[in-house]
Amino acid sequence: MAGGSRESGRSVTSRVLAILEAFEQSRTALSLTQIAEGSGLPLSTTHRLVAELTDWGFLSRGANGRYQLGIRLWELAQNAGRQLRDAARPFVQDLFSLTGETSQLAVREGHEVLYIERIYGTKRVPRASRVGGRLPMHATAVGKVILAYEEEWVRTAYLNRQLERSTAHTHIVPGRLAEELDQIREQGYATTLEEVRLGSCSIAVPVFHTGRIGAGLGLVLLTSQAGTMTRHLPALRGVSAQIERATAHIPLESLLGSHAARKT
Amino acid sequence: MAGGSRESGRSVTSRVLAILEAFEQSRTALSLTQIAEGSGLPLSTTHRLVAELTDWGFLSRGANGRYQLGIRLWELAQNAGRQLRDAARPFVQDLFSLTGETSQLAVREGHEVLYIERIYGTKRVPRASRVGGRLPMHATAVGKVILAYEEEWVRTAYLNRQLERSTAHTHIVPGRLAEELDQIREQGYATTLEEVRLGSCSIAVPVFHTGRIGAGLGLVLLTSQAGTMTRHLPALRGVSAQIERATAHIPLESLLGSHAARKT
DNA sequence: CTACCGCTTCCACTGAGTGGAAACCAAAAG
DNA sequence: CTTTTGGTTTCCACTCAGTGGAAGCGGTAG
Predict the structure, then answer these.
(1) B43 CA to C21 C1', in Å?
(2) Is A190:A204 a contact under the CB 8 Å cutoff?
(3) Which positions of strand D lie within 7 Å of protein CB atoms?
(4) Is the separation of the CB atoms in A89 and B120 below 8 Å?
(5) Is the whole-model pTM more than 0.85?
(6) What is the pLDDT of residue A252?
(7) Shortest Cα–Cα distance, B179 to chain A (Å)
(8) Domains of chain B
(9) pLDDT at A262 > cutoff 70
């Protein structure tokens, strides 16, 4: 058919998934009408699909009548990339024990870093990310370290975009950022200083997998600790090596990869 | 393909969800044919739906051509019950710091406990559960403590089923179990001794929410520590109280509830 | 009371979904 | 080399599941 836009919400599957994704934006529970708006579907269609999703436990309905993502979905999704996360978790925990600081492990997903593991220190560091959350690469230490070791074309592709500024300290000049990445590669670690949130700084080292960069392992600290950040490098490097060893046998091409731009 | 009385996949939605759930059993990546078998769908249908799910990142295809649940799904699902988990996590971590033992938080999902948070101790306790995993209620301390404080009809319904035996020490006699539950209620905590895995024991206290039992908070220890388990009770109770306070305002009817028996 | 808003139900129409079959591809067997 | 085997991908005519406008329902505000 000579429709206007490309196949957007044509198939039933796409409608179902659009409904699920509608919950990604708002952190609060959604009413049926809101879901319909968020997914761009007519109300009655939304109603029917939502009902079925609820039956299966993929959505759940609160007392107020609003919907949320169901625990069933969460439970099922725990199996995604489980090998990797199970293998890495104990080591991230070790890192936390060794340093006492907020410890995190992140991978690249498209143009952002996705945090797959995180242990919060007792000190109240301004929290910018969470497990399952994303942040731009150029503002975070884990992101920078991944970018620094990433293949050439990824790096250039990234730098050719408009880089958003999170705080006044975020580095967004492509030229200077490129230099910084080179330096990171030389010294083997990346740092940030209040580039994503005021009050916190971070440091990260690469985690390799099959020769390529696989993930970033890092710490978040209070800005006041910035001067002594590097004393954690031995711990970071040691744990990174352990993670590399423990995950070497796991095929994670499937985890990363694709991130093919999908139609909104 | 045997018989045709399979009343399963009527709607497209159900087919899609069946495909996703096919991944719950096997921890390894699945081939297209395996998915078709696991979900009970014809191959060509499976092929089409799987392709679309892959486009959206809900499934991902490994180098070997096999499929896995996609990280996109995991990321999205992190939003399910996030309020609750985010609120509880730091306290579970506190519990771990205080005790140094494997700490866990679980809720009831149907006739099983679902672990929503868990921090592994350094000591190598036989691991029976994981975050996102389930275990029968009568074999675990968190399960027993939840059951003990659960409404009458839930308890009786549970005891009227055939209780499976995990180890030789699992209590499966309904009468004796009922007595045990009464006692748990009296003393305010539950324990197990090698009832789910040989070599480990556990202790748990209730976490209340809006008057009703909401979750179970527990520790897993080596059997050798069984004698001194109760010394952790103050920590458990203290943390439990903190969790109760921190989650009091969160509506979690939506999280629990339903677990309506669905067609297999 | 009426107006409004959001949820639920209904149902005639139709094109998206279906799945058997055949083509395809790669690797193992002859 | 050819044949076989096992899984994956493509094709396409049929039809039934999905659709969505509209009407009905129920609670709340004015």
Answers:
(1) 12
(2) yes
(3) 6-11, 17-22
(4) yes
(5) yes
(6) 67
(7) 32
(8) 4-76 (1.10.10.10), 82-261 (3.30.450.40)
(9) no
